[in-house]
Design a protein that fits this description.
This protein is α+β, with helices and mostly antiparallel strands and 132 residues long. It has one domain: Nucleoside Triphosphate Pyrophosphohydrolase (Alpha-Beta Complex), CATH 3.90.79.10. Helix content is 26%, strand content 46%. The chain is built from 3 helices and 7 strands, in the order ββββαβββαα. Strands 1, 2, 3, 4, 5, 6 and 7 form a 7-stranded mixed sheet that branches.
Amino acid sequence: MILAAGCVLWRPAASGRGVEIAVVHRPKYDDWSHPKGKLKHGETLSACALREVREETGHACELGARLPTLRYPVNGEPKEVSYWAARALDGAFAPSREVDALAWLAPAAARARLTQPRDRELLDALLATTTR
């Protein structure tokens, strides 16, 4: 089993109404997704999620509500990714080989940009927690 963790990263919209969602582009897969990555030996899931957000977006974040855990096969192996809602704190994006673009988008635009339907489900789960 491949274990990984990530976040649906958000920040208050500059307009003061609603939120913006961070989506990252991974050139290896040519897809747009939420920041996530594999667990390192001895690392907790929450520590992995925080590290991956920092590595892929350049931002520190504060973990919020747990979101659904996704399970899907990758090259014939089962993968399980634990997710959190996370509010972005300080930081700045710098492109890398793993992630070459970061976009902060309104929820509808993020939904349209996300490649995988499962990532859209996570966005819905985040919106359900931030609008309560």
